[in-house]
Amino acid sequence: MRSACCSLRSSALVCVLFFTVCRVHAQGFVIDDAVAATARDLMDRAQSDNAAYEIVASLTTEVGPRLAGTESEARARQWAVQKLRAVGFANVREEAFQVPLWERGEERARILTPFPQPLTISALGGSAGTGSAGVRGEVVAFASIAALKKAPPGSLAGKIVFIDEVMARSRDGSGYAVAVGKRRLAAYEAARAGASAALIRSVGTSSHRFAHTGQMRRVTEAGEAGVPTAALSAPDADQLQRALSYDGPVEVEVVITPRQLPPVPSGNIVAEIVGRELPEEIVLLGAHLDSWDLGTGAVDDAAGVGIIVAAAKLLLDSLEQPPRRTVRIVLFGAEEVGLVGARAYAERHAASLGQHIVATESDFGAGDIWRFDTRFADAALPAGDAIGRVLAPLGIERGGNRASGGPDMKYLREAGVPVVGLLQDGSDYFDLHHTPDDTLDKIGENALDQNVAAYAAFVYLAAELDVDFR
Amino acid sequence: MRSACCSLRSSALVCVLFFTVCRVHAQGFVIDDAVAATARDLMDRAQSDNAAYEIVASLTTEVGPRLAGTESEARARQWAVQKLRAVGFANVREEAFQVPLWERGEERARILTPFPQPLTISALGGSAGTGSAGVRGEVVAFASIAALKKAPPGSLAGKIVFIDEVMARSRDGSGYAVAVGKRRLAAYEAARAGASAALIRSVGTSSHRFAHTGQMRRVTEAGEAGVPTAALSAPDADQLQRALSYDGPVEVEVVITPRQLPPVPSGNIVAEIVGRELPEEIVLLGAHLDSWDLGTGAVDDAAGVGIIVAAAKLLLDSLEQPPRRTVRIVLFGAEEVGLVGARAYAERHAASLGQHIVATESDFGAGDIWRFDTRFADAALPAGDAIGRVLAPLGIERGGNRASGGPDMKYLREAGVPVVGLLQDGSDYFDLHHTPDDTLDKIGENALDQNVAAYAAFVYLAAELDVDFR
To answer: What is the torsional sign of CA B219, B224, B228, B229?
Structure first.
């Protein structure tokens, strides 16, 4: 380990002066004073930098919604290329791939009996349609996807399934992993049991009348078909549950007319600050450019785009020379519909993944970062801890060594690329996520500065330090 | 004044004992100890009473949205008659009238250039339609309805007006009176200036992506026609304003297809506790049964229905004998579309308005009552103050003598019926008002108890005390 050698030399010197510093050094990795000072300077500059917000405002206003594969997503790529070139990044380019196009159609639902009234729904991404005549049926409620799985095959013939599982709010978003199961599987489990359609309580924490869309699990190679499936807003799920609490059957009508179309072009946008010594070694900063169609994708994930682009821009604008390694920004396409851009990136760059030193993605909204997780080799943990100490004044605690790195890091992580997670406070994230309400006004002008500070310091250190995270 | 005489006798006695009580009595009106004790007992009982919430839940679930003149409003009347009879009120009846029927159709809008994307709108009640082909035009923004009024006739030919005035949040809802001007007049002022359509920033305080509907001013007898007019949600108004901040024209498309149909039946529902001594003298408690079509009308105005019905029910359930005067509940129909039920009530009961002792309406959501306003003759103000002192332990301060009494009290007030206002904290009311988000979950189970306590005490005192508020 080059880093260990470096750290021992430095700690011997500094220990003469400061016990506290010595204790830090005893943990095995020392960040050179000048490097640490530069990192701190970047953090300071980020606090008075409005670049991230301006990027978020620009993307959400000039492009707005940008569903994978649509003309809007194509405009987002044009926007990104233009924006990244204007900032001054090198090697700005699109890396194209194909994505299946799913288009939302008409969508409406209503209680027919006993209490006729409309329900607010959104079709789930990838759902089959009901046809414009819709389907009608008696509602059968299940407390969870696990409960639906127990329904015998064919037992729900002619019925409409309603899964009414509530998602728990949490800072780390851990409720999502649980709740998303019903979104992924309801269509298929309802089909297996013979139902005509499925409704799920939205995977989200909002009490407002927005249905949260999101991708279903893709049809498997076995070709199993799901029933038409939509999310109900929380108030509508409450209402349906109340209607069910009266005696007698509750009948609903569901009309959704989405279309699944043949693959169309999408792409990832890549930009770089070329490393001054080790240009072939890559520190990857990701975010995703696509969004769901209902909102303007402000917290998901224009915020991430703004944060990482502003962080890299800060390096470009502040450093006298580029860091030793290459900083690569990747704005992934088609994340929402199944990490299609992430897979395309991993496949295209398979030969160079060994030179991806570390990677991370910002894709959890606009909340402050509160924890720094890594997924490093044990020998690199002292380096992770040292970076964590630089970030600590931002209110960021050192987390564990089980980072996911973010959704689009999946294939890199599985290929052995070290990843980190700069975990944001996501307490409110699932109030907005995948809803029409994911709009710019939900992000304060200075809300992103702490994120930019953390990403700028992290990416600089990762690109500058003589360290191997593997 | 019978009351002055009564108060002088009592105060002479009590002043011997307590200076503070004497001071109260010096203000000229004394509430008999037994009557005050009964009022306090009603207030206590209200705190452990869940009747109001149950009524709100029942109406919003079993009927849901109930736009004036629709089949849903008719179901609300059936619901009310059944509910009021079940509670045990006397003389439960429908008083029918006719109301013009306005039906919402399709509604959508989008920015065409320079940044194509959808906008969230709702047609204003009473608006003309664009036809299913919609209208397209360049947006011309105005800061207020006053600014639009200055546009010369014909100067906006082919344009689409956008009034971007922000409504102020306040406890007393005073921002509404200002903001509603653009909702009432935009269609007509835009027509006068030659525009093709009008968009207004929603009259509301929510930052969520809901457009707030609401009634425009009705076409005058002069027959002036307004242009098709819709409200934009606040995030969409922000977005349109941002698009306008770039160089170049912003073109939008608006499609709304409402229909104005011939008059259809509506009605007010009346129920009573018949007074034991003066049955012809009426203390009127109002709320309105109809709602806008977008939500389920929970805060507007199922809450008011729940509060006044529960308050009167508390008298029925708690008092050994009815109060001296008749307590009359009126659940008005067709309030939202222009106080049609209120006018019908005033016309039908014109001959007996002189026997309406006092009247009030609950129509401002589910917030706590913080002020007690009156509109009494000067001579009756001491009685108002005495009632105010009974209500004070509920956290209710004595307000002024300029009460409106509530929207449906307009014609009664104009006819000289004394009114009071039990003013609720409306800080959040206009977040929900006239939106799809006006649903039951926004009302806590115990949120209405303080309101019920105040209304029960007030209506009991008004019906029992020997006082003339005129």
So the answer is: negative
